[in-house]
Amino acid sequence: MDGYRRFMFLFVLVTTGGCNWSxxxxxxxxxxxxxxxxxxxxxxxVEVVNRNSRQIQSFSTxxxxxxxxxxxxxxxxxxxxxxxxxxxxxxTALTGPEVxxxxxxxxxxxxxxxxxxxxxxxxxxxxxxxxxxxxxxxIEPAWLVEALGITEFxxxxxxxxxxxxxxxxxxxxxxRETAEGxxxxxxxxxxxxxxxxxxxxxxxxxRLKASAVASQHRRDPLTxxxxxxxVDIRCPVAQFSMRVELGNVEINRLESTRHELWTxxxxxxxxxxxxxxxxxxxxxxxxxxxxxxxxxxxxxxxxLRY
Length: 306
What we know:
Largest sheet: 15 strands, mixed
CATH architecture: Clam
Radius of gyration: 19 Å
Helix content: 10-25%
Shape: globular
Number of domains: 1
Order of helices and strands: HHEEEEEEHHHEEEEEEEEE
CATH superfamily: Lipoprotein localisation LolA/LolB/LppX
Distance between the termini: 23 Å
Number of strands: 15
Strand content: 35-45%
């Protein structure tokens, strides 16, 4: 798979390769509150999950790390603010900035320092929905934020459950109609705390498109709201996986004056490419032929294992 597709999946999902998910052990660093009754109704689960997410207006951390098979450990900062503002910047100690992924209310972008051709690639949210780029990236950019724990059950969509799983958790299934057919999202919720433990998206043919598993949940001491400290996300289609370690996230304390966070950057020697430009040459199989990014990040001998 070419670097363009790999790193666009990195932005849209941050994401698989050979993980034994059945052996994942979820660790909790926050006290386990009882917020759900035994055998809760669908309405009760939805209310608990939505209440936590809706109260989170922003979060930020300068302690994040990104790791994945064949890639070095990247130090990262992550920030998010409603409705669509997001920024992830990652670097290595030796080489400096390597990755810049972001979104504001109008568009999203990504920059990979070592990829060829060098450019800052972007797309407007309203154009992306109907763009051929979506054929290469079947998951909406908002999935990345959902994977990190900001997820709500849309009251306008049909939800089924909660169904008890074999390990005692709660499963809710959500059906969404798309241009490619109905997709199913399976959300796994802790039966006591209501924490989001996993999210899996399946296409109309019941093939797994994306999966996020959250662990080490932490309650913010000032707000009482909860986010995971570690998220393992994978996409079998992209054949790429990554672990995001957020560290101690600060919730609802992001400075509102930091407008530079939500501005698409410019880097010396790197132009800009609009992925939704109808004049951009297209390849025969997937996406713009002019975008042939090769992931040339310095490789590490430390492989991600879990």
